[in-house]
Amino acid sequence: MWKRLLQIGTGMLFIGLALLAIGGLNHGFQPVAIVSGRPMVSRVTTKTTNLAPFTTITAKTDDLDVVVKSGSHYQVKVTMLTGTGITSRVRAGVLTLAQTGGADLGMLLGHTPTPRITITVPKNKKIQTAKIRTEDGALRYTVPQTGRLRLASASGDITVSSAQADQTEIRTVSGDIRLTKTQLHQPQVTAQDGTITVTQGTIHDGRFQLSSDDFILRNSKLLGTTRVRNASGENRVIGTDTAQGYRLQTRYGENTLFTRTTEKQIVTHNWSAANRIELITQSGDNRVTAR
Length: 291
What we know:
Layout: H1 2-25, E1 32-35, E2 38-41, E3 44-50, E4 56-61, E5 65-71, E6 75-81, E7 85-91, E8 94-101, E9 105-107, E10 116-122, E11 127-134, E12 139-141, E13 145-155, E14 158-161, E15 164-174, E16 177-180, E17 183-185, E18 188-193, E19 196-199, E20 202-204, E21 207-210, E22 215-218, E23 221-223, E24 225-230, E25 235-240, E26 245-252, E27 255-257, E28 260-262, E29 266-269, E30 276-283, E31 286-290
Parallel strand pairs: 4-8, 4-11, 5-10, 5-12, 11-13, 12-14, 13-15, 14-16, 15-17, 15-18, 16-19, 17-20, 18-21, 19-22, 20-23, 21-24, 22-25, 24-30, 25-31, 26-30, 27-31
Antiparallel strand pairs: 1-2, 1-9, 3-6, 6-10, 7-8, 26-29, 27-28
Organism: Schleiferilactobacillus harbinensis
Pfam family, one: DUF4097
Domain DUF4097: 57-287
């Protein structure tokens, strides 16, 4: 097994050195990729297209970042390497984007822009449904008004900021999730290997699930019942209101509720309150601090 891993690592090293040499010989360091089994200097291109109005976004990429933001026009801007294919169309108010190809392996050498799709929505327009998935890229969503928001990344961070959504589902296999200045109704947020951070937001009946990292809620407003389930990590609520309800549960760790720290497995405070949060971790601490 170790011999096989060493062979794979040595092969990757030689490939990297070859890509580095090819990029250096072509008028200084250039992006280099292996496309269809052959190394080639890959140029970075940018294409901007104004679109017909749309209220639904469906996008799926392999290795491109995706940014959805407000602006002045319905627009798509694609920055990509040679060998990457993107299809886009607007039909019956639905924008569909898909990555149809990409380099098998590549190295970005020198100062090159990150391969990215940027979707722009006029500032006063609402998106009814946004369904965006990337296999190996980051997602950033900053549209103020959205009905149904679904974001997923197999390997990359997800950031939602200055956004309001009626229904939210966010999932990442390997990456952090950051929610900043958001108003989310019944969000379901899952991070298998990453941190979930909520800052200066409003969460109504939230559901958060983590496997191996921390949950942090800072200076945020809670409405209804919010539940946090963590398998192996710390749950922290910072700058919160003592009038809210709290239930802290840990199997292997400590519970800190305001000024009191205990090894008791379950600690509660004002749990009958209309607005409350439940923090559960199997292996880790729960910590709640007031404003």
